[in-house]
Amino acid sequence: MSELASGTERSIATLPIAMREPHIADRNGRPLAVAIDPSGRIHYGHDNIGGDHAVAVLGHQVSDTYLAELREDGVSYIFAGPSGDDLPGAMAQLAYFFGVQKLLLEGGGTINGVFLRHRLINEFSTLISPALDGRAGAPSIIDYRGAIDESPGAGQALRLMGCEILEGGTVWLRHSVEDAAGHNDMPVT
């Protein structure tokens, strides 16, 4: 998300915040662009990302100066626990403050893995393009960075909802993520 923001870090004169409370800026009826940014590294420069109202999901450890910067830019923010990893709590706040019931997760494999681990994904939409790469170490759709003995997809399974061949030979697969009916050790397939 940081590549879409154009602001720079700056000093803000007033620092009225001591508690870590959500800040809900004026959305003006726009769709939301939600950035998972636990450490407060994105400097927006304005209140939107591609025209959508910017909402930052932060950890409690971000500085008061950073929060003042976000307020000055008109960016809304919520907190996902002390280290910014309480994604179920963040999703509950998005529902409460903004009425969000569904969101499109446009991260990479790492954020997909964290959301999957917390059972926050109910559907995968995958585009497979007819291209060759072959490089080792390329990110995957799910690239969970948790403990070696953790399986973020444990107890979950995929059910094919649709398959479509698009222009140029691209294949679009849609899968629902469902409980694996008591098979807690069943990998995502």
From TrEMBL:
Single GO BP term: riboflavin biosynthetic process
Protein name: 5-amino-6-(5-phosphoribosylamino)uracil reductase
Keyword annotations from UniProtKB, A to Z: NADP, Oxidoreductase, Plasmid
Pathway assigned to this chain's UniProt record: Cofactor biosynthesis; riboflavin biosynthesis
Organism lineage: Bacteria, Pseudomonadati, Pseudomonadota, Alphaproteobacteria, Hyphomicrobiales
Entry keyword Oxidoreductase: yes
Residue stretches making up the Bacterial bifunctional deaminase-reductase C-terminal domain: 62-164
InterPro entries referenced in this protein's UniProt entry, alphabetically: DHFR-like_dom_sf, RibDG_C, Riboflavin_Biosynth_HTPR
Keyword Zinc-finger part of the UniProt annotation: no
Taxonomy, superkingdom: Bacteria
GO molecular function: 5-amino-6-(5-phosphoribosylamino)uracil reductase activity
